[in-house]
Amino acid sequence: GSNNEQGGYLAGKHLIERGRDSIAFLGTVSGDAPEFVERWTGYNRALSEAGLSQDDSLVVDAAPSEEAGRSAALKLLEQGKPFDGIFATSDLVAIGAMRALHEAGKRVPEDVSIVGFDDLAAARMAEPGITTVAQDTRLAGETLVETLIANIEERVSESVLLPVKLVVRASS
Hints:
about 170 residues; six-stranded mixed sheet; about 45% helix
């Protein structure tokens, strides 16, 4: 799997480096989605290193879909609690959130910076393009094949944590 914890850290650190200090978290944090819990953990590490703490009122559950992201952002806006950044646990959530912000008259990135996760084609095509954490899908495929061959040959294969990188685009 990808280093989701490091990805969450990179996303949080990037938003903080952009001067954001009231950052919302949109995503699922439950045992059903361990990769999202890892992203949450990394994001909170970035906040902690910067001397910030997560405001629980800025944490909104969102399944990895555009509509869930839009609904989560609308909920944030309805609360009236100010925020200047969003870390979304998937690009689809980020795109939905950006749509809701646009409908509410908020500008991305001027009013709210957004970082997603996955580097989907939709993140590149969104307007503005979504800053995101990219997973190396080519390396993941190669590693999967190598692991499968090792298992077929009854060799011991180890779990591999694949690197991630931040891809900065106009949303932040």
